[in-house]
Amino acid sequence: MPGIGKLVNNARRWIDIGPIQFQPSELAKYALVITLSTYFDHIEKPKSRFKVFVFSMFLTGLFFVLIYKEPNMSTCILILGISMLMLFAWGLNLGYFITMGALAVPVLYYLTTKEQYRVERIQALFNPWADPTDKGYQIIQSLYAIGSGGLFGMGLGQSRQKLLYIPEPHTDFIFSILCEELGFIGAIFVIILFVLFVWRGIVIALNSPDRFGTLLAFGVTSVIAMQAILNIAVVTASVPATGVPLPFITYGGTSIVFHLFGVGILLSISKRIKVINDTKK
User: Fold this and answer.
1) Torsion angle, CA of 221/58/244/3, rounded to 10 degrees?
2) Which of residues 148 and 278 earns the better pLDDT score?
3) How large is the average pLDDT for residues 55-84?
4) Which of 16, 147, 153, 217 can bridge 182 by disulfide, Cβ–Cβ 3.0-4.6 Å?
């Protein structure tokens, strides 16, 4: 929204509120989870599958279009993924997912090839050395950082790649710096922490006393899990470069605040489980 959104690197992803910068797309992820959880909780499965599918696609499409116009393609993909996981948790038939995929693939293909820089990122993923000083620069420098870390790393704060080599070393590519400073052991430790977080989130979801709590816990866990997977995949050159932060680690106030908001929801549901179990005893 010109006049409201702040233009940074040819994208309007931020809103200035006095001294505070707010990123609406971070709120959108959890808003989608809460809205779908509330809606699904009031719908019976056998009678309303098509209705649920149409509503979910409409709501997801609305979020998708608004975020795409910023532009922010990586968050758009996350929004699609969150919606699909929420529908899976609710119990939608496989046929709907096939339909959703059939509809999404050509749309994503068109939106990706529409912008030349997105095509270049995909090309750079397969052969970054074809243009090591421009299109493949980020990937190459990230892999240098990961490789330099070895088994135990160069030591906390001793990274060389963060000294004007890797663009945005404190945000999108912070995991590669973590690998360089803490090595393979440190990287595996961080991944294990995320795995434990996801596992506990799923346990909370499965033990929730009501369907709303189950869907909400699963949705919150999905947001954090998908972001962690996508960020790590980007810095290890497993997928094309995107601007997805690593939850709880990447610098960024809006991202951290809303992820902590999500953790608060999980803890609230977990507390309810404990209270109910104690009451039964």
Assistant:
1) -130
2) 148
3) 90
4) 153
Q: Is the pLDDT of residue 201 over 70?
A: yes
- Taking all residues of the chain, what is their mean pLDDT, rounded to a whole number? 89
Choose among 82, 76, 79, 84: nearest CA to 100.
84
Residue with tokens 């070895």: 150
d(CA 217, CA 187): 26
What is the pTM assigned to this prediction? 0.91
Give per-residue burial for 82-97: e unless 16+ CB within 10 Å, then b. Answer: bbbbbbebbebeeebe
Sheet with 5-8, side-by-side order of all strands: 5-8, 11-17, 20-22
SS3 per residue for 195-228: HHHHHHHHHHHHHCCCHHHHHHHHHHHHHHHHHH
* Alpha-carbon span 46 to 84, nearest angstrom: 18
| Rg of the Cα atoms in the chain | 20
Say whether pLDDT at 73 is over 90. no
10-49 pLDDT, tens per residue?
788 888 877 778 889 999 999 999 999 999 988 876 567 8
Helix (H, G, I), strand (E, B) or coil at 14: strand
> For the CA atoms of 59, 65, 70, 75, what is the dihedral angle to 10 degrees?
60
